[in-house]
Design goal:
The structure is a homodimer. By secondary structure, the first copy, chain A, is an alpha+beta fold. Chain A folds into 2 domains: 102 residues, Pseudouridine synthase I, catalytic domain, N-terminal subdomain (Alpha-Beta Plaits), CATH 3.30.70; 139 residues, Alpha-Beta Plaits. Chain A is built from 6 helices and 10 strands; from the N terminus they run E-H-E-E-H-E-E-E-H-E-E-E-H-H-E-H. In chain A, helix 3 packs antiparallel against helix 4.
Amino acid sequence: MRQFKATLAYDGTDFHGWQIQPDHPTVQGALKQVLETIECGPVDVQGAGRTDAGVHALGQVASFSLVNPIPEENLVKAVNRLLLKTVRVLAINSVSPDFHARYSATGKLYEYRIQRDEICSPFDGRYAYHHPYPLDEAAMIEAAAAFEGRQDFRSLAASGGDEVESTVRTIFSSTLHREREGEAERLIYRVRGDGFLYHMVRNIVGTLLDVGRGRLAAEDIPKMLARRERAAAGGTAPARGLFLVRVEYGPAADTTHTTTTP
Amino acid sequence: MRQFKATLAYDGTDFHGWQIQPDHPTVQGALKQVLETIECGPVDVQGAGRTDAGVHALGQVASFSLVNPIPEENLVKAVNRLLLKTVRVLAINSVSPDFHARYSATGKLYEYRIQRDEICSPFDGRYAYHHPYPLDEAAMIEAAAAFEGRQDFRSLAASGGDEVESTVRTIFSSTLHREREGEAERLIYRVRGDGFLYHMVRNIVGTLLDVGRGRLAAEDIPKMLARRERAAAGGTAPARGLFLVRVEYGPAADTTHTTTTP
């Protein structure tokens, strides 16, 4: 039995999110099915973050264990050959038997893309939220920083989400900047933290859009967080603009583990 | 009655090509339907090039005439509001009444993208042909130039295509180069000419791939063209890598025309 860490990229457009669901295509379900074909038996697949329907990943992480002695370098090819093209395994590494994609994670980086051009290119429409209307971008940039630090983010947790004991999380960095790629003008929001509540990134972006529209002042964000209720914050920005960029692990968990044959 | 020139971008993945077909989604059909909704009457839509199913456009051109007096600047917004998001009208200009998207065109530029990385990103899979196997790229670059000039391209015309009197075309430039964008390594083939036969660009790319695989020598391309039969050239490269980049018009046809109310 060897434990593996897989790094995946996916276009979330056609999936009902990461988490396995009966009768709906999900990324976890697709990966599990492919691994079970290779293993010729049941495989339990854990993901670092349960991305919602329509959310994309550049570096989602999954963990699973296999008995099948297929070499690591062949495993990537075998999995990609069987997977839908909208999901690609970028790397598979042997890891310590106690590695768990979710519980071993020490941080995550998300990116949210807001397309600012009047006309959204048909090649960007699946991968950005198109918002061509006026926004006070300077106020949004200022407001983004207010989410940094160890804070209670209850105001930004979806009410329908998981029951969690604590809604306190540490945000290491929260920044917004304007980016030009070819013809496209975009606002890029990047947030890195030790963990995120359900819908938290999309709710932060919805709140930043409220700041941009002048409905909320950047300096009122601490007050909004202090209210600890969902109604205090802005709406939930659409899923298609959100990317899980990478999942971080402490140096111990991330190094390749020399597997011992069982 | 005013004559218009529209410039369009589209993701061809979900369309059965440009040309209108009963019971299948086509770009021409989608645009015609939207223009007829705005016009409240029949509209005849002409395209500069009939892109195949799965082929994309960054700058396709269509022409049509309208009686409806809606101002040009509102027309772009109105059309984009009604069109599928996978098609965007980038500009609409008033043109001379004798302007015709196809017959007035003096040149076209196409681009073909070959993705060279071992793993093709899920965000590139719809917009490139993934070919991770060894290719003699230097030979392909040399071979690309052999298609330039005024030549008979019968060997590169799909046998099932339109009956055309002449298969002689002038290729102004035909170049291949390697490009790096982020993590992705790509071969980009660009070809600009006064006209193209059915499947011609995809057949040139198929021939270049044969050169890359060592099945055909770059210096044998003139001989291949001289045979004037489809079997002499390489296969047809997949549609998803092909983009119609722009359509060119003589300076007279391209300038904005001052319309006179009928």
